[in-house]
Design goal:
Rossmann fold, 2 domains, eight-stranded mixed beta sheet, about 15% strand, globular
């Protein structure tokens, strides 16, 4: 039996032009008078999926989803120009104003947790609460762990497929090597690299490999935006100063927050969520003892829905 709320369709969708290049896809579902919640997808570059609406009781929540620059139904697809963390933070604020919302709850996992923290630290007065899953702090060590040495030691078989597109002489800096491939003028080179980059993520996202998750990551269109945009961000330190999100936590200390972390997350290891928890002990901290990284893991899904139900009930009382 599904732990998610039943499938639901948007009652409104929008195309929001944010500059001369980018147009965002934006949708609303649930209760137009409900508690506003903004779902922040991962990647960067992954885009939203229909099940993302189903973490929230549609009677209690005004559920807002948007595809970040260059991915999903936003255009142009896989575009790197004028695509940085701070463009995304500005886009979120533009969306809030466009929808006439005073404060909203932010719900983000993986890269979505990063973006939620960056927005909240920039606009704390606009955030009513934070739900963060699989915390990604975007530090240099966090990138090195997944793309250079760390996860590779746990999955040497999958790692061999990840490094295959890269010349042996260039494997000392996998992110930089992949950036050259993913920005190549040769479409065949770009697509091969994108599939290898994204499939590596899909294979390691769950404690036990999930064919549906792997299929989503290896889909050519999804893979291209995920790989190009992630690599573009990571070669630029995600456009943050080192440890910026931890260093600025005092700006959001007063905001109610929940952290949900898989014990066996190998993409965003628990050390990152733990570092955030140590800096921000006021945030509720929940460790899922039999989960990896993916929001689709049953234990993580149940914990997140329990939290959204709790917040929704509190808002109605």
């Amino acid at each position: 039996m599904s732990v998610f709320y039943p499938e639901i369709e948007p009652y409104l969708s929008h195309r929001l032009r944010v500059d001369e290049i980018h147009e965002l896809y934006l949708e609303e579902s649930g209760n137009p008078q409900g508690l506003p919640v903004l779902f922040l997808h991962g990647g960067p570059g992954a885009g939203c999926e229909s099940y993302h609406r189903r973490f929230f009781n549609p009677e209690h929540y005004r559920i807002i989803l948007f595809d970040q620059r260059g991915c999903g139904r936003s255009t142009p697809h896989a575009c790197l120009e004028q695509n940085t963390s701070w463009h995304l933070v500005a886009d979120m604020e533009r969306i809030r104003q466009f929808l006439g919302i005073d404060q909203w709850l932010l719900f983000g996992g993986s890269w979505g947790s990063t973006l939620a923290l960056a927005y909240a630290e920039s606009h704390p007065q606009q955030v009513s609460g934070l739900i963060l899953r699989g915390v990604f702090l975007a530090r240099h060590a966090d990138i090195q762990w997944f793309y250079q040495q760390g996860t590779s030691r746990m999955f040497p078989d999958y790692w061999q497929d990840f490094i295959a597109p890269v010349a042996e002489a260039d494997r000392g800096d996998m992110v930089r090597a992949y950036y050259r491939l993913l920005t190549s003028d040769d479409e065949t080179v770009r697509l091969r690299a994108a599939r290898a980059w994204s499939t590596w993520e899909g294979l390691t996202a769950t404690l036990v490999p999930n064919p549906q998750v792997v299929a989503h990551f290896s889909d050519p269109e999804s893979a291209l935006s995920i790989a190009r945009i992630e690599c573009h961000y990571f070669i630029n330190n995600s456009f943050f100063d080192e440890n910026q999100l931890i260093n600025n936590v005092d700006k959001i200390r007063h905001i109610p927050a929940y952290i949900v972390q898989g014990r066996y997350d190998v993409i965003c290891p628990m050390e990152q969520a733990w570092a955030l928890h140590q800096a921000w002990p006021e945030a509720a901290f929940h460790v899922m003892p039999a989960s990896g990284h993916s929001v689709k893991e049953d234990e993580i899904t149940r914990a997140l829905i329990k939290i959204t139900d709790q917040i929704g009930e509190q808002d109605r009382s």
